[in-house]
Design goal:
The protein is mainly α. It has one domain. Helix content is about 70%, strand content about 10%. It has 4 helices and 2 strands. It has a two-stranded antiparallel ribbon. Helix 3 runs antiparallel to helix 4. The longest helix has 27 residues. About 10% of the residues are buried.
Length: about 100
């Protein structure tokens, strides 16, 4: 993934613009934390017991929140904020 690929992937959302800004790392961390809070709230409802229709909806929501959080964690590991407030690719790890 190149620096340009990362920048293009974020050009179409408000979150993408915020991630590209000078506080991008903080925005990513806050987003990951918020997704975790939402996921925990849904898990609490699931643990408390829900009617069948609600259980399936909450299970799907829990899975979607977990996936979104995993994507944000991966994105935050691939990007660094570089001077000028843009996202760039983090240095490649050995073997990538």
């Amino acid at each position: 993934m190149t620096e340009n690929d990362i920048a293009e992937a974020f050009d179409f959302t408000d979150l993408g613009e915020q991630l590209r800004g000078p506080n991008g790392a903080d925005i990513a961390a806050a987003t990951i934390a918020r997704l975790g809070q939402l996921k925990d709230g849904v898990a609490g409802k699931l643990a408390g017991g829900l009617p069948p229709g609600e259980y399936e909806r909450h299970t799907a929501l829990s899975e979607a929140l977990a996936a979104a959080q995993a994507v944000m964690v991966r994105i935050s590991s691939l990007i660094t904020v570089i001077p000028g407030g843009t996202l760039g690719a983090a240095p490649a790890k050995k073997g990538e």
